[in-house]
Design goal:
Largest sheet: 5 strands, mixed
Structural class: alpha+beta
Helix content: 40-55%
Number of helices: 17
Radius of gyration: 33 Å
Strand order of the largest sheet: 1-2-3-4-7
Strand content: 5-15%
């Protein structure tokens, strides 16, 4: 057994042999250096853990990557941990095997999103994970993520405050699940107390003139010939009902109750719900139903599938009409604004839009369906008059609808 005080000069003077050999330090018990036949020299510490008394010899580092004194200092720290009943070698192994952010994201999508989030929410989570989380943090250990890492990533998207805030919200959910799954034992959630960016409200409503221009274009079959037929029908429904885009595109005929003059969504962003349909909408749907061979109200290009791309057609329509920064979601905002113009209260508007807010819901749960139906009828007629002056809403009673369907 070779022993000598390990110093920089002594270590560099050691020569390789045909077999590996060890030199033990004379000053610090358990601190040693292994010299390989290739000449590689590796510092290590030998100790026994206090529970199983098993000998451990974790590597501290290679000479040249760390100095002799740095290796000695680390060996002293490890020996101090051993006196407290800890096992530095086991801790290093656990750290090596600790889950990364990539592991966390994969489990989050597989075990949480698959069963607990809406399809659209999962899609948005996946997009943020692929674009921002994995490229910046994917290889990092979950327990190594610090508040400054999250803050830096959040700040990097300051030019798009809405997206930055959605990313922060996702990271908050991820880290909450990491705590639940014991990925962050003894660590503080790094998303706490990070301020969100201020978001500019970009919602706007279409003016009466814009509604008239839009209606004129939708009725012009020559102008709309390049678009899928479902596009203009879907846009008209959005205008007449204030539905969310996802609600319109996934609408099935099974959901539409012509007799009850309502639509029953088995699932939506806010869960199952029932919304009344105004006469103008019922007339519009009855005409579509008479010629439909699909289970979807707005079938797409693929057989048996709904229309999926309304965003690009809407952009083309806006360019033709000269609409600046008008989002398709602004059709919903226009519907709500029209209700407000007609004097309806916020609770009534919330009821027609299908908002799920406990405070608001508590204020209008006592209302009967009659005034809600009357409200959607008035606003539907108002918008229908603007987008199609020749329509005849008075004919859209249930008898007319039944005649359409029978044909």
């Amino acid at each position: 057994m070779t022993k000598e005080k390990l110093t920089k000069r002594a270590v560099e003077a050691l020569q390789p042999r045909s077999d590996a050999y060890i030199v033990w330090d004379t000053d610090l018990s358990g601190f040693g250096l292994k010299v390989a036949p290739t000449g590689r020299k590796t510092y290590f510490l030998s100790y026994r853990n206090r529970t199983t008394r098993t000998e451990r010899r974790p590597s501290i580092g290679k000479h040249g990557h760390i100095t002799t004194e740095q290796a000695r200092a680390m060996a002293k720290d490890w020996l101090y941990e051993v006196t407290k009943g800890q096992d530095p070698s086991l801790k290093r192994q656990e750290d090596r095997n600790a889950p990364t952010m990539r592991d966390l994201c994969e489990r989050f999508l597989r075990e949480h999103c698959k069963f607990h989030t809406k399809r659209g929410t999962t899609y948005n989570y996946q997009r943020l994970i692929d674009r921002f989380v994995l490229p910046e943090l994917g290889a990092r250990k979950v327990h190594d993520i610090r508040r400054e890492d999250v803050q830096k990533l959040h700040n990097s998207l300051s030019a798009t405050p809405y997206q930055a805030n959605r990313l922060l919200a996702l990271l908050s959910v991820l880290m909450t699940k990491a705590e639940e799954w014991h990925y962050m034992e003894g660590h503080i959630n790094p998303t706490l107390r990070i301020e969100k960016n201020k978001e500019k409200q970009s919602q706007q409503r279409l003016s009466d003139q814009q509604l008239e221009n839009l209606g004129s274009l939708l009725r012009n079959q020559t102008a709309m010939a390049s678009e899928h037929p479902s596009v203009r029908h879907a846009i008209k429904l959005l205008l007449l009902t204030g539905f969310r885009k996802s609600e319109a595109l996934t609408l099935k005929w099974d959901y539409v109750d012509f007799d009850g003059k309502c639509v029953r969504f088995p699932d939506s962003k806010t869960g199952p719900k029932q919304l009344p349909l105004n006469p103008s909408t019922l007339a519009h749907l009855s005409g579509l139903k008479a010629n439909s061979r699909s289970e979807y109200v707005f079938p797409g290009k693929k057989m048996g599938r709904p229309l999926v791309n309304l965003q690009q057609p809407w952009k083309r329509i806006c360019r033709r009409l000269g609409f600046k920064k008008v989002r398709i979601h602004d059709l919903r905002h226009t519907f709500a604004s029209k209700l407000a113009d007609l004097g309806y209260s916020i609770p009534m508007i919330a009821a027609l839009l299908g908002h799920k807010n406990l405070t608001t819901t508590a204020r209008y749960t006592h209302l009967s369906t009659a005034p809600i139906s009357e409200a959607t009828s008035r606003v539907g007629t108002n918008i229908a008059n603007l987008i199609d002056p020749n329509h005849e809403p008075d004919r859209s009673n249930i008898e007319t609808i039944q005649i359409h369907i029978s044909h």
